[in-house]
Structure prediction request, 515 residues.
Amino acid sequence: MKTKTYKSFLSFSCISIVISILLFFSCNKDENQISPEQGTIQFSLLINESDALKSASLLSTNPASALIVSVENSSGIKIFTKKNIPLIRFGEEYITDPVSLETGEYNITDYMVIDKDGLVIYATPKEGSPNQGSVGDPLPVSFFVKSNKIQNVSPEVITSVNASPKDFGYETFSFDIVNTYEFLIGVFTYNDKNKAISLLGSTLTVSAGSDVLYSGTLNSVTNLVVIPSNKSEYKVTVRLNGYTTYEKTFTKIEFKAYTNPDGLPLVVMLAKSNIINTGLIFWNKLGSSDEIANSVVGTSGLLSGGSFIPGVFGNALCTSYDQDNPVKFIDSGIFSMQQGCIEFWGKLINVYPILTVGDPGFWYEFFLYKEGDGNAMGQSINANNGLSSGGVSSAVRNKGYNYLSSCGTQEYTWQIPLTDIYGSETELWHHYAVVWNSNGLQGIDNGNRRIVMFLDGIQNTAFWHTGYVGDYIPWEPADASLTLLNNNGPQGSMAIDNIKIWNYSKTDFSDRFVE
Prediction:
């Protein structure tokens, strides 16, 4: 069947495919700057008030020429590094041309102002640097890009002339200005069933030798990607689970044909593959009511509330503090207590900043899998999960408590500020994973642990509690369900994106940025 689909695709009219793809691009390209999946920002120069007189004198003799800006998304993927963005002067104000970005949350990690000679004359101090107290919000500074909106982003800067870079948290104020290519790319597939092509989301890597120039996700739109233009060749790799991998190396001259402003978009066609993810037994993207009702792998869900916001991949399910458990997956077969792994992206939004025990107790549960009134497994963020673990914690128990293990980022206490767990990144997207094995996890405390937590790809479990140990009793296939998002707090929202369950004890999450 797979081979037949592939042959049918090859025999499909090339003219029809080309016309369809051009129509896709003509629609998307016209809307590229402000499309439903993109928004527009402008950077501007905001000088600290106490520095204003000194700065006014400096600008009169040495005008600002450009910004040097580094930005990464909420997953830590670099969108651009020390990008040179020209400043435009309007009277006494300086702004940049609009910059188009996909909707979502971002962090500014470098922000410097240079003059016409390339000297840094202003900068935003970084958190932890000696000058951090000179501005209200030191770097990293977060901002959110909204669709069909033009937003001004203005980190506060102070004069850096005659100052040490280390006073601002920078290693150096010198840098090489790297020219860049901007190119459009769209990923398509041909559906033999309805005889039509459609855009796909996927992951893109652009490399030159051993240097990775870009690594990130592509949405199912025409994507704008920025990479350095100083390489002799470019290797483009596009991957999507269930599809053949696209891999092609272009010379500099060949690749330039796809770059803005006059180049054509790079069209990538992917065909269905017979290869699937071994061990992946459940996967739901959680980006819409249709996606929840149609899991990519495994049982489908029942949606009863919540809303959708921009996620790590497309959209994500979100619920407020008064709308708990908006989705349920009913199936006893998606978990085995013998061994497995569940991973997902989660986010806390304006929740109460302190986790507490007692009445009332404030805690946040991303998922709970429960069979009847006995066997259960869950993952939450709390001061005490009831089994002596706190912080980001998880537990698994057999019916009758005769087999129980719990772990957390710290031991339980009466109160835990969220900043103790996440630092300043309490409202960013984070990747969570719970891994378990009833026979012990290899490589974790000499195999003496049965359960472990990973946060953002790093094993961060600091405390384990095990009690009532007895023989392993298999879970009974009755009344089992997986529910998501229980906000047991007085305010705010929780969001979850791209949940996957594996039938083995997966501990490598370097692929977490791949949908």
